[in-house]
Amino acid sequence: MRGLRTAFGEHVVHEDLDLDVCRGEILAVVGGSGSGKSVLLNTILGLKEPDGGAIEVFGRDLADEKARDELERRAGVLFQNGALYSTLTVIENVEAPFLEHVRLPPDFVRDLARLKIGLVGLEASAGDKRPADLSGGMRKRAGMARAIALDPDLLFLDEPTAGLDPVGAASFDTLVRDLRDAMGLTVFMITHDLDTIYAICDRVAVLADRHVAAIGPVAEMERSDHPWIREFFGGPRGRAAREKQS
Ligand SMILES: Nc1ncnc2c1ncn2[C@@H]1O[C@H](COP(=O)(O)OP(=O)(O)OP(=O)(O)O)[C@@H](O)[C@H]1O
């Protein structure tokens, strides 16, 4: 992203925002409430038009329709609530991207969907259940199976551990890292979760003052003198997360 500007009428959310995401990394995007994390994600995904600047993905400018099509094909998204179709079973949810984007025989699609359900650590029997019949953690995994259905290069995660208990959150972190390693994913993750940041993120981008106020490994954030960054990483939760990892 270069010089990105987004606004709602007079209200400017991002101004002169530059951000690079490196291939293969897990990048955490953090920032206070209202700092524009969701608007940034929605802008990258094409759900909101930028008001200025440029976003390039896979070497193409997203202003180009072909680039948007390519992003849709090569990126998976896990929204905060999982965004699963409630009337479909889990396996039907995982099959949905195949039906939308590729033409393959139904039996083959089913086999691929089963494979993805296994990859995210769900029992095969979960495939026949509807989202409402799963626990929160299982629903996130089902959403993840759908997000990786088409073997994406880029994975967007919106608060993946929100609403999970600490054990469930830690095992979801491990899943994200294992999938990144196994599938060579690049992960763009909005999160507030300091445990996740310390456990699996390669770099952190801090949204503040309408732009990326700092970006780098978590150790660099600990040395920052930006007030919000100091409070976030230097507070009791930050210290506890750091101690857990050491
Ligand atoms: N559809 C909209 N219309 C008008 N303003 C909006 C709209 N969506 C977001 N905003 C504003 O844009 C700013 C950034 O919102 P955003 O949801 O991206 O913040 P966030 O960093 O994701 O916050 P949180 O951590 O609380 O989810 C906020 O001031 C919000 O009020």
From TrEMBL:
<protein>
    <submittedName>
        <fullName>Methionine ABC transporter ATP-binding protein</fullName>
    </submittedName>
</protein>
<keyword id="KW-0813">Transport</keyword>
<dbReference type="InterPro" id="IPR017871">
    <property type="entry name" value="ABC_transporter-like_CS"/>
</dbReference>
<dbReference type="InterPro" id="IPR027417">
    <property type="entry name" value="P-loop_NTPase"/>
</dbReference>
<feature type="domain" description="ABC transporter">
    <location>
        <begin position="4"/>
        <end position="234"/>
    </location>
</feature>
<dbReference type="Pfam" id="PF00005">
    <property type="entry name" value="ABC_tran"/>
</dbReference>
<dbReference type="GO" id="GO:0005524">
    <property type="term" value="F:ATP binding"/>
</dbReference>
<dbReference type="GO" id="GO:0016887">
    <property type="term" value="F:ATP hydrolysis activity"/>
</dbReference>
<dbReference type="InterPro" id="IPR003439">
    <property type="entry name" value="ABC_transporter-like_ATP-bd"/>
</dbReference>
<keyword id="KW-0547">Nucleotide-binding</keyword>
<keyword id="KW-0067">ATP-binding</keyword>
<dbReference type="InterPro" id="IPR003593">
    <property type="entry name" value="AAA+_ATPase"/>
</dbReference>
